[in-house]
Amino acid sequence: MYIIDRFEGDYAVIESGDRQTFSLPRILMPTAKEGDVISISVAIDDNETKARQERVKNMMNNFFDE
């Protein structure tokens, strides 16, 4: 469980169940207010990860080939 503890400028300070805090950009939750309970999930974008790896690989190949 995560609770919005407060807002500090452009960031929301989030408190976890074990009372640790971290900040997230306020823009990610435009209608949220202090005291709201939020859920957070993370998803890995495999396609974008592969594309990024290819871009980096190409940059490295171009750098070392010259």
Automatic annotation (TrEMBL):
InterPro entries: DUF3006
Protein name stated in the entry: DUF3006 domain-containing protein
Classification of source organism: Bacteria, Bacillati, Bacillota, Clostridia, Eubacteriales
Annotated Pfam families: DUF3006
